[in-house]
Write a structure and sequence with these properties.
2 strands, single chain, mainly alpha, two-stranded antiparallel ribbon, about 270 residues
Amino acid sequence: MSTKDDQPKGVSAESAEEVLTSPEDEVLGAPESMNEEKAGAEPGSFIIMFFILGFIASLLVGWVVFPKLLYSQKQQPIDFNHALHMELVDDGCQSCHFFREDGSYSGVPALEQCIGCHEEVQGDSPNEAKFVEEYVAKEREVPWLVYSRQPDCVFFSHAAHIYKAGMDCVTCHGHIGESESLKVYEENRITGYSRDIWGKNIAGFKKNPWDRMKMDDCAECHAEAAGSGTHASVQTPVDRVVDNIIHIAFPGTKPAGKGTSVQTQKDACFVCHQ
């Protein structure tokens, strides 16, 4: 026999729908949707983080690691005290780095200029003893590593800049006359030139005029001397690129400046490059 409670109860469609969509189920379903949104956001966050880390790593490699690999460090054959010698000479830098009678620049002193004072060992300096024993006594020229050495095709007139322009040695060479020892010579493994040409900053920025010796620096100084603030008197690679872009975009348009030499007022590359 069946009782009243054992008999099946009828469930309407509305009641079934309410049961399926009860608030408890909605609450339970909320975390699933949040997890789906979070899962969708994770790949994008990973890509952004990967890009940031890659960018930082690239900066460290390019600005810190690469310069250390690009430049080798060398010591001069002997150390030299500029400050000590400046106290003993009468004409400052030109006592050793003088101009010849024909106006040409002597550059690094030859051994014959030093023998007058260093024919015998003076004092107890190890560098002095090494200089006299290995170079003076054997009549060997000191193989100095020249920080400002330019390519053979570059001509630079010291006389024009010192006598005509009235420039001081410090403008290009810094306060080397006050130094008591020579700095480490850093040589570019690819070009073979000193790091002083490009400059210490791998990005090319500089604080002082003697921080580097590139063509752009010559052009900048010549532009200031010529009173032109828009176009360098000696045309630089950047100027040529700008002029080419202007010429392509606006055919027939003349560049802002001729990019001429201050010395000749002509398009003469041979003024500096011979």
